[in-house]
Design goal:
The chain is mainly α. Helices cover 52% and strands 9% of the residues. A two-stranded parallel sheet has the order 1-2. It is elongated and about 65 Å long.
């Protein structure tokens, strides 16, 4: 079978109407399916605005590069990770003043452990997991 020809499940995902969740093993063609799906939506959506969500930055970068090669700079895609979307939403919320950094997270976890763990527990052993 040719690389560019989708299997029946991939074809269904590319041409499905409505929201689509693609779950598959590594190397099974998820990125290609998402790119083809986005291209179909680009052609059918008047606003040309599509949100593609991945787990890794590397996948988001790869999808973005493939889309730019196939469609060009004319379409407005938002390709990002779950974490990036959540962070953007948190930062856009008026009630959130600051998202803590790595140092603050570590200090907060240490303080929480000191209050929750018995006095004779080895705190240093737990710090390995922070």
């Amino acid at each position: 079978m040719k690389e560019d020809v989708p299997n029946p499940a991939q074809h269904d995902a590319v041409h499905h109407s409505g929201h689509t969740l693609v779950i598959a093993c590594p190397g099974s063609g998820k990125t290609r399916v998402l790119v083809e799906r986005a291209i179909n939506l680009h052609d059918a959506t008047p606003l040309n605005h599509v949100q593609l969500v991945t787990f890794t930055r590397e996948a988001a970068i790869e999808i973005n590069e493939r889309l730019r090669k196939k469609i060009g700079q004319s379409c407005r895609y938002n390709v990002s990770t779950f974490h990036a979307i959540a962070l953007k939403q948190l930062k856009g919320t008026a009630s959130v003043k600051k998202v803590i950094g790595e140092y603050e997270r570590q200090a907060l976890m240490e303080r929480a452990m000191e209050h929750c763990i018995s006095p004779d527990a080895d705190i240093e052993a737990f710090k390995v997991f922070l």
